[in-house]
Amino acid sequence: MNNVLGIETSCDETAVAIYNKQQGILSHCIYSQIDLHNKYGGVVPELASRDHIRKLLPLIDTCLKEANLTKNQLDGIAYTKGPGLIGALLVGAMLAKTLAYSLDIPSLGVHHMEGHMLAPLLEDKTPKFPFIALLVSGGHTLLVKVTTLGDYQILGESIDDAAGEAFDKTAKILGLGYPGGAALAKLAESGNDTYYSFPRPMLNKPNLNFSFSGLKTSVLHTWQKSNQDTQTKAHIAASFQSAVVDTLYYKCKQALELNDINQLVIAGGVSANKKLRSKLELLMQSLNGELYLPRPEYCTDNGAMIAYVGFLRLSHGQKDAELDLNNIDNQFSLVKPRWPLTELSKISKISKIDEA
Ligand code: KG4
Ligand code: ZN
Question: 295 CA distance to ligand 2 centroid (A)?
Fold first, then answer.
């Protein structure tokens, strides 16, 4: 397995990348649909699927050109099988399987969150197993103990809104557009993060779960009672961000201490947040441990993480079952809009990342 094409279409980003065994990521291309969905205040699933159909093939061509490869030099194709929007996932899955069939190479459907979680392994500094991963995206907030590739124990998760969702909903209250996480973080730079005292949810609970919906409601009430000027908006943004970051910080600290592990990986869209990154960096220094992060462009949805996980698993002989052209009815089982991370198959031969 030398060159693996990765295809990501789980939500509102059409993304493609090529991973090479010796050189790592050769090229990665992203087309974001944010402008398409912005006026609706959120992702419109049907529009997302149609746009993936329009953009995916030209993006694969561009990516191959940038990598200086032809289709015939590909050895495998990985695509996001789930979790995500069913229609959007189906576009990537059908294209990946059809292309693999025509090139007579294997395809493999991979888990979007495993992609996020292993994206830090594309950097120079990589963790060794076992490590704790904090996955913070628009749809998930998970604390995971990673023992080996595919052996994932969920230590805690959000019981309501995901961290990214809380950022997006709060940004919407403040009129910052969708998805508003990055815009809110930018605005927070000109605010005072102790101006308002928002709740740090679940910190007094003995478990590692999160809850962010009450925090968002508290922001809404504060906003409605305020004078709603620009400076107030910045104070709310900064104080909200601080509440989320503090909560994530304390739960990570607890997870690391309870499991006696001193390596922390953070990934997913919210891991692009500078305040979170610097606070967790301080945490790991205080614990004499290490923090591992993806570069900013691999924090949000991307094809590189899918190509990489696909490469790891395809290299260990995993592949999809043959495409059954006589049974079109089973096409919906090609994807898994809901797919717990704990259902993934374990590759126990790998004890260190370097052996992957
Ligand atoms: O991982 P991702 O790209 O997509 C999902 O799998 O959901 O994550 C997107 C989420 C959105 O909620 C977005 O607002 C949030 O990540 N996000 C941020 C930042 N950049 C993206 N949240 C806080 N601060 C940021 N800088
Ligand atoms: Zn994602």
Answer: 14
pTM score, two decimals? 0.94
Q: What is the mean pLDDT of residues 260-266?
A: 98
Cβ proximity of 110 and 316 under 8 Å: no
Let me know: does 29 contact 62? Beta carbons within 8 Å: yes
Residue nearest to atom 7 of ligand 1 (CA): 138
CB distance 164 to ligand 1 below 6 Å: yes
The predicted pLDDT at position 201 comes to 85
Question: Does 115 contact ligand 1 (Cβ within 6 A)?
Answer: no
Q: Are strands 3-8 and 76-82 parallel, antiparallel or unpaired?
A: parallel
Q: How far is residue 232 CA from its own chain's centroid?
A: 31
CA distances from 105 to 43, 189, 241, 320, 339 (A): 33, 49, 46, 11, 25
| Pocket flag, ligand 1, residue 300 (CB < 6 Å) | yes
- Nearest ligand by distance to the CA of 8: 2
Rounded to whole angstroms, the Cα distance separating 153 from 83 reads 17
Per-residue buried b or exposed e for 60-91, using 16+ beta carbons within 10 Å of the residue's own CB: beebbeebebeeeebbbbbbbbbbbbbbbbbb
At residue 44 the predicted structure's pLDDT band, cuts being 50, 70 and 90, is very high
Euclidean distance between CA atoms 130 and 144, whole angstroms: 10
Q: How far is the CA of 179 from the centre of ligand 1 (A)?
A: 7
Indicate whether residue 182 lines ligand 1 (CB < 6 A). yes
Q: How far apart are CA 290 and CA 46, in angstroms?
A: 42
Which residue is listed with tokens 């290490």? 290
Output the CA 145–ligand 2 centroid distance in Å.
19
Place of tokens 């974001």: 32
Distance CA(281)–CA(128), nearest Å, equals 18
Cβ 84 under 6 angstroms from ligand 1: no
